[in-house]
Write a structure and sequence with these properties.
It is a single chain. Strand 2 and strand 3 form a beta hairpin. The protein is 45% helix and 16% strand. Strands 1, 4, 7 and 8 form a four-stranded mixed beta sheet that branches. It has helices at residues 2-29, 143-176, 200-225, 237-267, 279-298, and strands at residues 35-42, 53-57, 63-68, 74-80, 83-90, 97-103, 107-109, 112-113, 183-184, 196-198. Mean pLDDT is 77; it is low at 1-30 and 300-310. With 310 residues, the chain is an alpha+beta fold. It is built from five helices and ten strands; from the N terminus they run αββββββββαββααα. The chain folds into two domains: 35-113, Sandwich (Immunoglobulin-like), CATH 2.60.40; 143-186 and 193-298, no CATH class. Helix 2 (143-176) runs antiparallel to helix 3 (200-225), helix 3 runs antiparallel to helix 4 and helix 4 packs antiparallel against helix 5 (279-298).
């Protein structure tokens, strides 16, 4: 009986002992995590790139280690098992770079040079620097000229944005012009009364006209105050855009003056007459010229029929 019990206990504990021994042998045979990869991340000119993210992955895409470059561009990945890995380095403003590395039991050095991130293709219908009046020589790395170009670009960009916004009250003013009248007692009868009943439409039209005039003036100020480069010549879409300004600019002034005259006549119970009656047609011509000038530099389709064929 004792012999049977001993054999039974031996049969239960032997597999456990063998499995423990096998695990220790496998652990002893596995390569130790003594490898490391360190180096520096720079740009194409050799300038250190701080805060670059360095990721080490296996061939199967499993992440093994991650590091971030310091202010000097240095990074270090430690406690790595020997083997083949893929090292990926990425930084703000740079294209991601992937390098195949072999980790051994000794420290490895690896310097990575990042390339600038490629920019999206420019909109072919957008005005170029030459359209803005700058020659190729003038746009070289001259600090003063670069600062001038930056200021001019920012002011003209604001000019374009405000110009697009101005079209909203301008079109609204044009559409409300037909109803900009004062309703009076007995209107349409043989003996109309001059007492006002409703002048809401007239006041709405006047208010929209005032907003349009203010927005137009603000928009024009950015174009007028934008710094200019002596000896530069504009052409293409910009030249056409500025030519139309000689139409809608005086048109805006004339529309405002005629509008005041028409408002006074309508408010006093008179029919709009004389030169004030040109208020509507002048407003239409001004709006059309203004809209065409905006399309010349903002239309997404590259149709520049005014440019000379090379």
């Amino acid at each position: 009986m004792r012999r049977t019990t001993a054999l039974l206990a031996l049969s239960l504990f032997l597999p456990l002992g063998f499995s423990e021994i096998a695990g220790k042998v496998a652990a002893a045979q596995a390569p130790e995590a003594t490898g490391s990869v360190s180096g520096a991340v720079t740009d194409a000119s050799g300038t250190p790139v701080p805060h670059a993210v360095v990721v080490l992955k296996t061939a199967a895409g499993e992440g093994v280690a991650t590091a971030e470059s310091d202010a000097a561009g240095k990074f270090a990945l430690t406690h790595l098992r020997p083997g083949e890995y893929d090292l990926t380095v990425s930084g703000a403003g740079f294209a991601e770079k992937k390098v195949h590395v072999i980790v051994t039991g000794t420290p490895g050095l690896l310097d990575v040079a990042l390339s600038p991130q490629s920019q999206p293709p420019a909109n072919p219908s957008a005005p170029s620097l030459s359209d803005l009046g700058f020659s190729s020589q003038q746009t070289q790395a001259d600090p003063k000229l670069q600062a001038l170009l930056q200021k001019r670009t920012e002011m003209l960009r604001m000019h374009q944005r405000l110009g697009l916004i101005t079209t909203i009250p301008m079109v609204a003013t044009l559409f409300t012009g037909g109803e900009a009248k004062v309703e009076r007692e007995g209107e349409g009868t043989a003996t109309p009364n001059t007492r006002k009943v409703n002048d809401t439409n007239l006041n709405l039209h006047t208010a929209l006209g005032a907003v349009t005039g203010a927005m137009y003036g603000m928009t024009a100020s950015y174009a007028i105050r934008a710094p200019r480069v002596p000896g530069s010549h504009k052409h293409g879409a910009i030249r056409f855009h500025e030519a139309l300004a000689w139409v809608h600019g005086p048109g805006m002034l004339a529309t405002g003056v005629l509008g005041i005259m028409a408002y006074k006549q309508e408010s006093s119970g008179e029919h709009v007459h004389g030169i004030a009656s040109a208020h509507g047609p002048v407003a239409v011509i001004t709006t059309l010229a203004y809209g065409t000038s905006m399309i010349a530099v903002s239309w997404p389709i590259h149709v520049k029929f005014w440019e000379k064929k090379q």
